[in-house]
Amino acid sequence: MDICIIGGGLSGLSAAYSLREKADITILEEKEKLGGCLSSSKAKNGCIEDFYHHCFSGDNNLFELSDSLGISDNLEWLSGSTGYYANDKIYPLTTPIEILRYPLLSILDKFRLAILTIKSKNYNLSSLDEISAKDFIIEKCGISVYNSFFEPLLNSKYGNFKESVSAAWLISRIAIRSDRKTGGEKLGYFRDGYNLLIKSLETELENSGCIIKKGTKAELINFNGSKWEVNGAAYDALISTINPRCLTKIGGPEFPEIPYQGAACMTIGLKREVTKGIYWLNMKDKAPYGAVIGHTNFIPPENYGEHIVYLASYFKDKPEENLEEIMIKDFCNRFDVKDDEINWYRLNIEKFAGPVYIKGYQKMVPEYEKEGIFLAGMFSQSNYPERSMEGSIIAGKKVASEICRKYNI
């Protein structure tokens, strides 16, 4: 049986891995490297992800995949500290004492925020799908908690969509991050980076006979009555992991209008540390990026021979003109970084980084099969209401099992 997979991100690779011994597989990846948003590039030493990543203690499918690939011993658990940049100052918010000292929330605000965090795992997320995160937070915690704590998060993550995002997404995000210790949140990372996961999958798939075509975009799909034709080549089954709107444009079925956003993520190699030891620094002050991720305040800088920082930004339709210049200039001015302290920097753009979980999104989620095409990706049910590597792996495994069931392989 011949299967074509459009997209070499984690969902596509996971589907291929599940099917590798049961079918002949061809993966078409538009870019020159695999991984999608989990792709990596060279750092001073080794590789660094193009877009920041970490995993959580409940990511069991990721752990099973890592174990199957023989790389689970490379996974480490480290503490991730957090903070806010407000009024031109960095406020650490990792320990209970730091949170109590945070001046932009009253004692009552902090109490309400603590209660919400405690209750987050008990909410029925489906019931929150039609409620905006803004309205929910204001009702439960008050306007000052929203303005001082949650609005910067929503703005950095969703920009112009911030008032449309559902409470289901926000509460799921709080719940997954609620198991904090006094030293910070425990997060997982491969000692050799997530490039190890992607390269291990690529090697295993190629050793199994899988054909991987990088730099090859799916231009046209068509069902000829018995087989799917992709760029003129015929296949018995087709898996698509790309934005459903993009699939429609090349001959796929119609889908509900799922809003997507792009990501513009700058990675900077530095000679020194600049975020006062904080891993994840949300920007409350207006800036051309919503968060500064001090990667080497999470992973030891010795792994790279330098300090590494990400500047996270999201956009609708297309990024701002001259964004690279705007971001690096603002960063250097704001954090007092001199030109000779920068080893290198690059801006990575992903036009369709992921769907925006607006109110009512649950009704838009496509099934795993539509009109004979199998679908898995950021848009899948397993990635709602919070997208993750775990959700993408589950989606890939799910379509693989659906193909096995339908074709009895």
Automatic annotation (TrEMBL):
Lineage: Archaea, Methanobacteriati, Methanobacteriota, Stenosarchaea group, Methanomicrobia
Protein's name in the database: NAD(P)/FAD-dependent oxidoreductase
Database matches in Gene3D superfamilies: FAD/NAD(P)-binding domain
Domain Amine oxidase as annotated: residue spans: 10-403
InterPro entries, A to Z: Amino_oxidase, FAD/NAD-bd_sf, Zeta_carotene_desat/Oxidored
Superkingdom in the source lineage: Archaea
Provenance organism: Methanomicrobium antiquum
Pfam families linked to this entry: Amino_oxidase (PF01593)
NCBIfam families recorded: PRK07233.1
Molecular function via GO: oxidoreductase activity
